[in-house]
Amino acid sequence: MARRHWLDPLARRVLQAMGDLPREPARVNEGRWPAEVEGESVTPSWCIDVNRATAEQWRQLPGCSEVMVDQLLRLQQGGVQFSQLEDLAQLLDLPELLCEQWRPHLIFRWHGDAPQLPEQAPLDLNADSPKVLSSTLLWPEERMQRLIAERRREPFQNLADLQERLCLPPSAVEALIGRVRFGARPAGPSLPPRG
């Protein structure tokens, strides 16, 4: 039988919402994923802190490929942190079923000041015009020119690739989570850098 937490249910839910306690996981019960089984809260057998997880911990998650593990570790080494499952799912292009399987095992503890979550359509860093990127990202001119030059050389693959090639600080990459995507390179001739 699962061991109940000593906090009352309301306090436990508040701490779970804040990320200070892991969410109660679901267990399979006749094809459904209930939050409680026979009146007892279900606790996960293991959890990982998304922003401090090791390669071995990521590999415990069902469907977590070596490519995903590599990308997550590269972002972590660059100082990037995640604040919610939706950002992680978008970055890794996770199907809904996999998200639900991962959810009970993930803890999102922010180490430092939490960022503001953006609310706008994602920019395509490989295809959007320099003018659109410049007006939306509000980066310094030198950084914008490096971005345009690097994407001409080779399209960016993901946030880790972008961070490494442009030498971006973690705060700049964190601000992009959920705001950008990496589509195909634009067709036709490349635009020259402004300057």
SSE map:
Layout: H1 9-18, E1 36-37, E2 40-41, E3 48-49, H2 55-59, H3 66-77, H4 85-92, H5 96-102, E4 106-107, E5 123-124, H6 130-137, H7 141-153, H8 159-166, H9 170-174, E6 180-181
Parallel strand pairs: 3-4, 5-6
Antiparallel strand pairs: 1-2
Helix pairs in contact: 3-8
What would you note in describing this structure?
- The strands form three sheets. Strands 1-2 form a two-stranded antiparallel ribbon. A two-stranded parallel sheet has the order 3-4. Strands 5-6 form a two-stranded parallel ribbon.
- It has helices at 9-18, 55-59, 66-77, 85-92, 96-102, 130-137, 141-153, 159-166, 170-174, and strands spanning 36-37, 40-41, 48-49, 106-107, 123-124, 180-181.
- It has three domains: 1-45, no CATH class; 49-114; 123-181.
- The termini are far apart.
- The protein contains nine helices and six strands.
- 39% of the residues lie in helices and 6% in strands.
- With 195 residues, the chain is mainly alpha-helical.
